[in-house]
Amino acid sequence: MLSDGRTTFKELAGATNNDSRTIASRFQRLVETGVLKRATVEVDWSKVGFTASAYMGSTTALGEDDRRKLLEFLRHEPRVLEAYTTIGSNEYFMKVVDFDIATLRSGICAPLEPLTVDLTTSLIVDPIKSTDYSGLLRYLKHRKSSS
Predict the structure, then answer these.
(1) Which of 11, 95, 109, 124 has its CA 20 to 30 A from that of 116?
(2) Is 110 in the same domain as 64?
(3) Which domain holds residue 73?
(4) Residues 66 and 106 in one domain
(5) Whether 52 contacts 38, CB under 8 Å
(6) What DSSP letter does each residue of 80-109 carry, written as one string?
(7) Which helix (H) or strand (E) covers residue 55, if one does?
(8) pLDDT tens digit sequence for 81-101
(9) Residue closest to 26 by CA, chosen among 1, 39, 9
(10) Largest Cα–Cα distance of the chain, in whole Å?
């Protein structure tokens, strides 16, 4: 129910044995405090022609000019859906989509290669688990109650 953005306050109230006004005020408080940031929509990119999706990671030690160009590319390339700086084996990590593997290679990998060191690509084949906010919230509730 939490992963469906169309769920109404009335439906949430019924599922949690609360009043819908209570749900609405708690929701508003979560928005105001920044816990809830925005509504999102899950898109099946393959249905609109993007049959190749991948996670990519890289490091860079090429200098500040190349770093600036890399960040510029990541921010402005529409096929880069998400991009992060990280701590670990990759300095940068991103999720990308493209029409197929060939265009992913030519349109995303090729422009990134001169700006990165050790660019890695892992093609996504099948999802194992979708985002599960309700499971995480149950875990937090259980952990809090057992403390």
Answers:
(1) 124
(2) yes
(3) 45-123
(4) yes
(5) no
(6) EEEEEE-SSS-SEEEEEEESSHHHHIIIII
(7) strand 52-59
(8) 999 999 989 999 999 999 999
(9) 9
(10) 57
